[in-house]
Amino acid sequence: GSPDELADRLLEYPLGSPAYAQACRAAERLAQTQQGAAKRQAEMVLRVMKGQR
Fold first, then answer.
1. pTM of the predicted model over 0.90
2. Distance in angstroms (rounded) separating the CA atoms of residues 43 and 32
3. Which of 29, 37, 42, 46 is most buried, taking the most CB atoms under 10 A from its CB?
4. Which helix (H) or strand (E) element contains residue 45?
């Protein structure tokens, strides 16, 4: 999925759930492997996720 889809899904997961942790790892992978706009989006998703903690 795209970083946008990832962000939307994350907001549905309870913090600390296995699905949330899995999505965190997916976003981290995206941030490391994507370039340009997709990379910035993935990094933004990670910031949002970390801000929710």
1. no
2. 9
3. 42
4. helix 36-52
**Beta carbons within 10 angstroms of residue 43's beta carbon:** 17
**Mean pLDDT (whole number) for 14-21:** 85
User: Is 30 in contact with 42 (CB distance < 8 Å)?
Assistant: yes
Angle at 23 between CA 42 and CA 43, to 5 degrees: 15
Most confident of 7-11, 21-25, 32-36, 49-53: 32-36
Distance of alpha carbon 18 from alpha carbon 21, whole angstroms: 5
| Inter-CA distances, 50 with 1, 3, 22, Å | 20, 15, 14
Per-residue pLDDT at 53 exceeds 70: no
